[in-house]
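input
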Amino acid sequence: MDPARSVAFFKALGFSHNPQFTDDTAACIIISEHIHLMVLTHAKFKDFTPKAIRDTSEAVEVLNCLSCETRAEVDDLVSKAIAAGASVYSEPKDYGFMYQHSFADPDGHCWELVHMTPEFDGPDK
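output
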């Protein structure tokens, strides 16, 4: 993971970063007022866990999911991600009540973007 590359990638998606928590080993990406993402080099990440770090070219370690206001926003973010160096993780899916599309960022981390129709109250209702 290259913090400068990560900052550039997420800025291309329209997010910002907090330079106070960004250096040559880490970057703090501001996705929203309530969501901050820390991206760390493997050496830095090892300071936080005794477990092995997965190789994202061989395994998925997490699926990150962000909710979007519109279906167009989902497609726009995926398009921006692809233009900035991401790859398509899975093709778009339309479930009627929910639309999703996804990408893998340049470090191989998977991002699902979803839009739920406002009328949908959940599977139990």
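quick obs: Residues 71-83 form the longest helix (13 residues).
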